[in-house]
Amino acid sequence: MSQITNNAFFKKNIILLIVLLCFSLTACGKKPPAYDSSYKTGKRTPGTQRPYTISGKTYYPLPSAQGFVEEGYASWYGPGFHGKKTSNGEVYDMHDVTAAHKILPMNTMVKVNNLDNGRELVCRINDRGPFVRDRIIDLSYASAQRLGVIGTGLARVKVEAMGEGQELPDSAIKYASIPDYRKGQFYLQLGAFTQYENAYKFKEKLANRFKDVVILQFEKDGQTFHRVQVFAANNYDDAKSILRQVEPEFPDAFIIAR
Questions:
Q1: Model confidence over 128-181: pLDDT tens digits?
Q2: Does 58 fall in a domain?
Q3: How many folded domains does the chain comprise?
């Protein structure tokens, strides 16, 4: 009789312990607030300005071409690509005076100087590339012909940004002076989540390390994503420095310009 009583007492206490444990877990689990549209800040980044990966290497397009100058080798591409789509959606015409660059904004006008023969021309960036080591610009057939690169295939060049263009509704391009990209608001995107709750938890985790953490909601292929971004700096060079600091912990982080 005593054994039966003890068993009943033991079972009763086990049930009570389970109830208390469940209540404790429920009380400790902080439910994030509903998605606040105020988190949705900043303008949408054009597709041609978003980071992209080729052969395992990620390229980060510049928010502006202000002050951009570089020297290296130029190559050219022609018949094999004629009539195909370029990275900005145009149809490649090898007879147009255009070029491809890995990180300059689309429609940037660049002055290209052939350091081997002294020839020079101004052409428009409308494609991405070249993705070959030591090559900094891929010229259209027409551009390469005017610079005297067709026969040699490669040439040492100096590339200098002259101005940026904006496409108008009638497909024309309006060129303007290049804004100073070194000033502005620069954020680092550290994560993207399909579940808002996970994005919010990540935001709360970062709040102690960064003074401004935002969640940006966007749609892609019918699915909702939540990007978590942190303020980096009001200077592009400083933002790049901070990006290098956090890359070991967040290898997929990249800069967002606003």
A1: 999 988 899 999 999 999 999 999 999 999 999 887 765 555 656 565 555 555
A2: no
A3: 2
